[in-house]
Amino acid sequence: MLIRSLRIDDDLGDITEMLHRAYAALGARGLRYNATHQSPEVTARRLVRGYPILAENDGRIVGTLTVYRPDPNHTAMVYRDAETYHFGQFGVDPEFRGRGLGRALHSKAIDYAGGQGARFMALDTAAPATELIALYERWGYRICERISWDSTNYESVLMRRKIDNVRGRSSSPTLASFAPRSAQEPRLS
Question: From 47, 49, 139, 172, which residue has the greatest number of CB atoms within 10 Å?
């Protein structure tokens, strides 16, 4: 299993289909997460807005998580905080769950954010997804805010935890380095 950054030759159709599989059970419960139905174009926009981390097994993408920098104009207060990074578009192919893959992706996200000087990591999920809230609580997250997004059909809880390994700004790839560039855009299939 390889945990790595998005590459220019990664197939966004494959990543999108994996996200659909990862979120299918939540969708079946009536929770309209963006990842239950988003197009490859939406996947691309969400990936390049942040620092995308992928899990690969034998050449197949089986997990993803994207880390985002603070946004002073964000609707959610916690996502505006200058010391708080957040992650989203987090999913593991159901066939690969229970192997620590989600924890490995999360660990890489924490390391990246800490290396950029973030003191906190945050996330949001559906309030009815109590099993996900419990998982994130085991990882040290606590609910800090509630919000209803226009693009979903549920109330979201926002959760935040402290990052213990803050190292200041690193020379890791910048978020902008993953933005598509004309002939180098990742493949849409």
Answer: 47
